[in-house]
Amino acid sequence: MRFNFLYAGRYVFRTGWTYPESYIPYNMVRYIVKGDAVFIIDGRKIVVHEKQIVYIPEGCRLACSTLGDYFEFYSIRFRLSTQMEAGDFLSDYFHIKTVTKVRQEAGVLPYFEELYKNAVTSTAQNAGKMFRIRGNLELIVAWLVEHSGDTVPENDSQPEASHMADALQHREASSRRYKQDPRIRVVMDYLNSHMDEQFSLEFLSEMVGICKSSLRRLFKEQSGKTVGEYVVELRMSTAARQLLISDKPISTIAYEVGYENPGYFTRVFRGYFGTSPYEYRKNARI
User: What is the pLDDT of residues 1-55, one digit of tens each?
Assistant: First the structure.
């Protein structure tokens, strides 16, 4: 079994942030640095807090919203070389739970910090950093396996057996409905590496050999978003990361993620994060 790293981000959200329910086509682990939020995973409402790690398996549906005026977390996306038709390999075979309490922060937080630091500075030519990224990802998963008993009560009223049955039924339905189409994976990979470019649905549909209406339908089924919504999320996530790790001018960041008009970029960013790029950078460094 191999862990294929996709992306790492550090995010800060303010009051009112919501992430609409979406299909998740990869695995995620999120370390909650500060604040509280509601995560709804396959219909199960979970309140998450500081010093908790949330495991979000591939194939689930996820929605999130903040509960306070500040919410910060690391998020790592990855895929497994070993897949299951239904269920989840890490939770079913290694008993990783949805929420794990971190009792000694020094034990696992450095892995997230080191992975993130290497991810935001790595290049295709820097093989050493890629090995460090994969190594830290494996250490995070190993930590979760070793601490699979350090779970916290989940904020709902259904008994655990009922939850397990409901989750499995939902996962099986999701697997049948959302079996990943390799053509949509190609489109996503292209958008991930060309987010600064302008594109058209006609170009994307020709690239993978399907009509525009089929691309719209399949992309929405696979990602839970339209192509445009997916690109905005990708651009905003990348911009937020640059605001946190660099001192680049906001106009430069706007241009690098595909916005020629910094004013329009600011309006989109405010609509997504609930604050301006300047305030986002300022508040995250307090």
Answer: 678 887 888 888 888 888 888 778 788 999 999 999 999 999 999 999 999 999 9
String of DSSP letters for 132-159: HHHHHHHHHHHHHHHTTT-B---SSSS-
Tell me the one-letter amino acid at 241.
Answer: R
Q: Which residue has the tokens 């994969």?
A: 134
User: What is the arithmetic mean of pLDDT over 67-72?
Assistant: 92
Amino acid letter, residue 151: T
Sheet harboring 37-41: ordered strands across?
Answer: 18-23, 61-66, 37-41, 44-48
State the Cα–Cα distance between residues 33 and 246, nearest whole angstrom.
Answer: 20
Among 95, 40, 97, 31, CA closest to 63? 40
Q: What pTM value is reported for the model? A: 0.66
